[in-house]
Design goal:
By secondary structure, the chain is α+β, with helices and mostly antiparallel strands. The chain is built from 18 helices and eight strands. The strands form two sheets. It has a five-stranded antiparallel β-sheet, with no helix packed on it. Strands 6-8-7 form a three-stranded antiparallel β-sheet. The N and C termini lie far apart (131 Å). The mean pLDDT is 83. It holds the Pfam family MS_channel_2nd. Belongs to the MscS (TC 1.A.23) family. It is a multi-pass membrane protein.
Length: 418
Amino acid sequence: MDVIKNQLQQWGMNEAITGYAANIIMIGFIAVICILANWITQKIVLRTIIHIVNNNRYTWDNIIVEKRVFHKLSQLVPAIIIYFSAPVFPAYQGLIEKAAMTYTIIVAILVLDALLNAFDAIYRSFEVAKIRPIRGYIQVAKIVLFIIGGIIIISNLIGQNPLIILSGLGALSAVLMLIFKDSILGLVAGIQLSSNDMVRVGDWIEMPKYDANGDVIDITLNTVKVMNFDKTITMIPSYALISDSFKNWRGMQAAGGRRIKRSIRIDTSSIRFCTPAMIEEFRKIHYISDYVSARLDEIEAYNAQHQINRESNVNGRQLTNIGVFREYIHQYLSHHPQIHKGMTLIVRQLEPGDNGLPLEIYAFSNDITWAVYEGIQADIFDHIFAVAPTFGLRAFQNPTGHDIVQLKEQEQELVAQE
């Protein structure tokens, strides 16, 4: 500054305005240095770093570049130059240093924020991220970062020790807990969800209270994001997964089998003992031919042993069409290529009611894909409904308008014949 002032005085400039002119020249000089340094950083240093990152075999550093960590870090160069240039202006040195330091702190906070985003993105690239998500912890770290950064900025501007400001926050703890209530609850819930492995990204969960039924696509500090099967998004508070009940279908997905639990209702008036003609027909059915022969031998031996009077079908043991039909369904499912052989397979009767006798199928498909599962289930019941008349059985159905019309037509025909 003295050199510039002396030079201006040698050029004949009035001593009264020499100081102002020298300050303007120095400010311009510092500005040129800052612009030049920023250009060198952006065009040379930053491009060199990006070139090195793009041409190595690692992928994590590419994510750091994508999150613009180095770009934000380069913005510190002008602030550092301005900070160390402050003594040139003694009258404004304190103000310039505070302004430069404040800007430096803000840039440092933004750099750390970008670094946390990069760390989260790198972690998400591993499979463990689906089991142990850290998005909530990253958000807590950001909150702490911005709070500490704000305290340091304030302490820098007012010239006080940050510990003094922190001690003053004790009186505001109740207010802070009220403001960050959801975040605190979300943090506690996130720890419990993660430690107990209750939900992961990619899990299919069902929570009727929040009308959620779909896949978990994100777990954050305050919310769990669920994409429903109709492609709508449901946001569930994290702590709701701890305080309320929900269904996680991960076990089904991991087991590789999806449950089929559906009944066909049989008209009870069609249930009867098997006649010889029916038995001969059943012997021709591949799945139950051995069963029918074995059962007949067993029945004959039992009836002969106990000297059963065979003049009435009520006496002794007899084959029924519903029993043979139940065994046929069991054998049909046992040989079905899309039924899981390592899981429960039951064909059972439920309590009969006004809608007939429910014959329930309890099995598991070996493909858990929704569309495929529905197709397997539909094909099985298509077949069951089609073969039921072969066993002399009728599926129960409440009378429809068509049935009533047919009854009227039959009645009219009878009247006409009379």
